[in-house]
Amino acid sequence: MSFRDLPALVTQRQDALTLLEALASGVDEREFAPFVTALTSPEDEQAAAIMLGSGNGMSLRVQLGALLSGAGLVTNDEVFQALDARRARAKGGVA
To answer: Which residue, among 61, 3, 51, 54, has the nearest Cα to 29 in the 3D structure?
Structure first.
């Protein structure tokens, strides 16, 4: 999967699942920045800034998963499965 396969907008569950699939398959993290920006509320932005300032900043992958889950488009379990699959892929394992 490549960034060309990503949806233009994320408004439905299938769009969110496509993003999680891309996350799991190793699409470059920078490709998720527009989605994180679009899904981030002022409250989310404030929380992320506090976390970053305290040395607990999140990667774009984790932010995207939290935002998709918070929007009710996917479950936390689905997010964790995608993150685990990416981690396994990075280590050369099978997810």
So the answer is: 61
Q: What is the average per-residue pLDDT within 49-64? A: 93
**Type of residue found at 89:** R
| Structure tokens that stand for 92 in this block | 């050369």
- Predicted local distance difference test score (pLDDT) of residue 91: 87
- Residue 17 located in a structural domain: yes
Q: What span, in angstroms and rounded, lies between the C-alpha atoms of 3 and 48?
A: 25
Residue 95 lies in a domain: no
Identify the domain containing residue 71 by its residue range: 8-90
Residue partners of 31: CB distance under 8 A and separation at least 6: 3, 6, 22
For residue 3, what pLDDT is reported?
A: 58
SS3 content of the chain, % helix, strand, coil (to 5): 70, 0, 30
Domain count for the chain: 1
